[in-house]
Amino acid sequence: MPPAHYMKVHRLNGARNDLCCEPPMKVGDAANKWGFWHLGQFAKDYENLFGELPSDTLRRRHGFVLGLDLPS
């Protein structure tokens, strides 16, 4: 695995861990913390690696997106 690819995978995993931990982080905050400045590219790379969007990870793990409760 090329070093640049390894670092991107490492950073994406770090962002995923932040989205899954308590208290959860907002998607943009997690992306920025791990050095992803273009949120659209971050979401695309995240989905390619994990098979779901970052907002889907938040929803699945915490039942909300960006701090808003989802309707039941």
How is the secondary structure organized here?
Blueprint: H1 3-20, H2 27-33, H3 39-50, H4 54-62, E1 64-65, E2 68-69
Antiparallel strand pairs: 1-2
Helix pairs in contact: 1-2
Structure description:
The chain is mostly helical. The chain contains 4 helices and 2 strands. Strands 1-2 form a two-stranded antiparallel ribbon. It starts with a helix and ends with a strand. The mean pLDDT is 87.
Task: List the defining traits of the structure above.
mainly alpha, 72 residues, 4 helices
Mean pLDDT across all amino acids = 87
The class by helix and strand makeup works out as mainly alpha
The CATH architecture assignment turns out to be Orthogonal Bundle
Beta-strand proportion = 5-15%
Q: What is the count of helical runs?
A: 4
CATH topology: Arc Repressor Mutant, subunit A
Sum up the overall morphology in one term: globular
CA radius of gyration is 12 Å
Largest sheet: 2 strands, antiparallel
Low-pLDDT residue intervals, each spanning 5 or more residues: none
User: Termini distance?
Assistant: 43 Å
CATH level-1 class: Mainly Alpha
- Tally the beta strands: 2
Strand order of the main beta sheet, please?
A: 1-2
Number of domains: 1
Q: Could you give me the name of the CATH homologous superfamily?
A: Homeodomain-like
Order of helices and strands: HHHHEE
Helix share bin: 55-70%
Quick structural overview:
The protein has 72 residues and is mostly helical. The protein has helices spanning 3-20, 27-33, 39-50, 54-62, and strands at residues 64-65, 68-69.
